[in-house]
Design brief:
This protein is an alpha/beta fold and about 260 residues long. It contains seven helices and eleven strands. The model has no long low-confidence stretch (mean pLDDT about 95).
Length: about 260
């Protein structure tokens, strides 16, 4: 049986949006959405042994999770991994090492971001199954279709003016429509599935050191919560999705308590 560790990571402080990991989203604790989606995925894959851990320096967040999800293993975050400049990969690596001391080696590690509540169980399943099916990949992360393309309608600042984001290769004609340009995606930071060997052996904290696969999610389902305005807008989108699309409604309905 394959073994998967799911990590939920959250710091106590946030410079951009204070206590964002403790917020209530559409009437339920924000972190519960990730845990509910993980639970639905786990139920859909009884052939995989799944363990879930919470790595945080927030006692309030740990208490909130323990109230309804006591099976989640609480890993108090050490001080050296608590700063806002610490690569998240280092926190995930530390979680893996501590969990393997108790449970032995895992095959995969999946990180679900607390501030991405609008993911479905199918989104998680898609990302995991891509990682399973592609032994050549070190990492799979979730993406959404990009609304802009640096070959066509994005610019970069060049001194006192701007130029096209990426120039065409010499000798090739300019793209006159976005559909002609190479495909680009937005990395939405919702789901990361690491092959254990890559994660454990990485010493730079840089994702791009590995060969990466992309798992496509609904583009209107994800925003980054970095401010009060982001949060309010995502609640509006969330309320619509929970009311109109069953995969999203299933996650909200699965929340305990």
């Amino acid at each position: 049986m394959k073994k998967l560790l799911i990590t939920i990571c959250g710091r106590a402080g946030s410079k951009g949006f204070k206590n964002k990991n403790l917020k209530t989203f559409c009437g339920r604790p924000l972190v519960y959405y990730s845990l509910a989606a993980a639970g639905l995925f786990q139920a859909s894959r009884p052939d995989v042994q799944v363990d879930i851990c919470l790595n945080t320096d927030s006692e309030a967040l740990a208490k909130l999770v323990a109230e309804q999800y006591p099976e989640v293993v609480y890993l108090p975050r050490c001080e050296e991994l608590g700063g806002d400049r610490v690569p998240k990969m280092a926190v995930i690596q530390g979680s893996l090492a501590r969990m393997e001391e108790k449970n032995g080696a895992y095959d995969y590690v999946m990180d679900l971001d607390i501030t991405s509540p609008l993911r479905t169980a199918q989104d998680i399943k898609n990302a995991f199954e891509l990682a399973e099916s592609r032994q050549d990949l070190d990492l799979v992360f979730s993406v959404t279709e990009s609304r802009r393309n640096p070959y066509f309608n994005m610019v970069r600042r060049c001194g006192d003016h701007v130029e096209k984001g990426i120039e065409n290769a010499p000798g090739t004609p300019a793209f006159t429509a976005r559909q002609m340009a190479p495909e680009f995606y937005d990395v939405n930071a919702s789901i990361y599935v690491y092959r254990r060997a890559f994660l454990a052996g990485n010493t730079t904290g840089i994702l791009w050191d590995g060969k990466i696969g992309a798992s496509l999610m609904m583009d209107t389902g994800i925003l980054d919560i970095d401010s009060e305005e982001d949060f309010k807008l995502m609640e509006v989108i969330g309320a619509h999705l929970y009311a109109t699309l069953e995969p999203f409604a299933q996650v909200q309905a699965a929340i305990r308590g």
